[in-house]
């Protein structure tokens, strides 16, 4: 998949299919409840109410610079509580070749938040050491998000704490990280906006060019079903009240705005628009 937003190009890089795990993280999204939402079928759920979802990165090209948004799970990572997403052996980096580039061409890596499924490809295991995968990139992390995770919060998944150690700290230690404010601007087209709650300093990536707008969500929303049902929370939100507030607020700014929403875990065709139909919000291609 590819999208054009003014002068900016955005490409999809899929790591893996994630419907089962995403559905288990949204307890209200039972097959029975999902089946009642006809508009989800067939793109976002199957006729049995089983959600479709992905783990994916977005590659942005703006002003001849390449920005990689979120780096999925990565290979060879130890993830004891979510074993399906640990010890992967996926040809993910090879997919960059489809765009005529290699890891050394990436100018920026940005993580919307520091959960392990958004930081994985930051590093690669070479000779038992975690080495930065993108040697020429500036890795952009929210400073406050990094500080939160370095405090080793007890309420969080062990996999996320391991992700900090194997996929974030090595980047800091090699001097490739830039710890930024939550409203960081890459250039006149690309900036971060604050979407807290899923994690304390979660951000989304805003694209604005030639009067066209797009938003890469990160995990303030997991699945299109939460467009109609924003109150369907995720079990892994750090602050669920704030996450709900953010979801409602961002959806209300997107409705009928013509802004393309690219959902970080949304299944293909991934991109769409928030519109009001029969008094409710839906996600429409
Ligand atoms: Zn995620």
The separation of the N and C termini measures 13 Å
SSE string: EEHHEEEEEEHHEEEEHHEEE
Give the mean pLDDT.
97
| Class by alpha and beta content | alpha/beta
The portion of residues forming beta strands comes to 25-35%
β-strand number: 15
Largest sheet: 7 strands, mixed
Shape: globular
Secondary structure tally, helices: 6
What is the CATH topology? Answer: Metallo-beta-lactamase, Chain A
Question: What is the name of the CATH architecture?
Answer: 4-Layer Sandwich
CATH-defined superfamily: Ribonuclease Z/Hydroxyacylglutathione hydrolase-like
Keywords:
alpha/beta, seven-stranded mixed beta sheet, 6 helices, 28% strand, binds zinc ion
What does this structure look like?
The longest helix is centred in the middle third of the chain and has 16 residues. With 285 residues, the chain is of the alpha/beta class. It is globular. It contains 6 helices and 15 strands. Helices cover 19% and strands 28% of the residues. It has one domain: Ribonuclease Z/Hydroxyacylglutathione hydrolase-like (Metallo-beta-lactamase, Chain A). The strands form 3 sheets. It has a 7-stranded mixed β-sheet. The structure holds zinc ion.
């Amino acid at each position: 998949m590819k999208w054009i937003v003014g002068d900016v190009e955005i490409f999809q890089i899929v790591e893996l299919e994630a419907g089962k795990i995403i559905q288990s993280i949204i307890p209200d999204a039972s097959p029975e409840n999902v089946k009642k939402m006809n508009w989800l079928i067939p793109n976002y759920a199957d006729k049995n109410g089983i959600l479709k979802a992905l783990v994916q990165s977005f590659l942005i090209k703006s002003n001849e610079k390449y920005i990689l948004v979120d780096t999925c799970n990565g290979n060879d990572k130890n993830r004891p509580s979510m074993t399906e997403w640990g010890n992967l052996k996926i040809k993910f980096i090879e997919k960059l070749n489809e765009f005529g580039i290699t890891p050394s061409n990436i100018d920026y890596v940005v993580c919307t938040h520091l959960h392990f499924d958004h930081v994985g490809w930051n590093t690669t295991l070479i000779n038992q050491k975690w080495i930065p995968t993108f040697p020429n990139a500036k890795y952009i992390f929210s400073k406050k998000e990094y500080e939160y995770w370095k405090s080793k919060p007890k309420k969080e998944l062990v996999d996320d704490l391991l992700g900090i150690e194997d996929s974030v700290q090595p980047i800091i230690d090699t001097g490739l990280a830039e710890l930024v404010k939550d409203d960081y601007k890459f250039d006149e087209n690309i900036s971060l906006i604050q979407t807290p709650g899923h994690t304390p300093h979660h951000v989304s990536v805003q694209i604005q060019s030639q009067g066209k707008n797009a938003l890469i969500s990160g995990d303030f929303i997991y699945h299109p079903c939460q467009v109609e049902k924003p109150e369907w929370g995720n079990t892994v939100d750090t602050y669920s009240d704030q996450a709900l507030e953010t979801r409602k607020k961002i959806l209300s700014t997107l409705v009928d705005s013509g802004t393309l929403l690219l959902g970080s875990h949304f299944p293909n065709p991934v991109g769409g628009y928030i519109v009001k139909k029969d008094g409710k919000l839906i996600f429409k291609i």
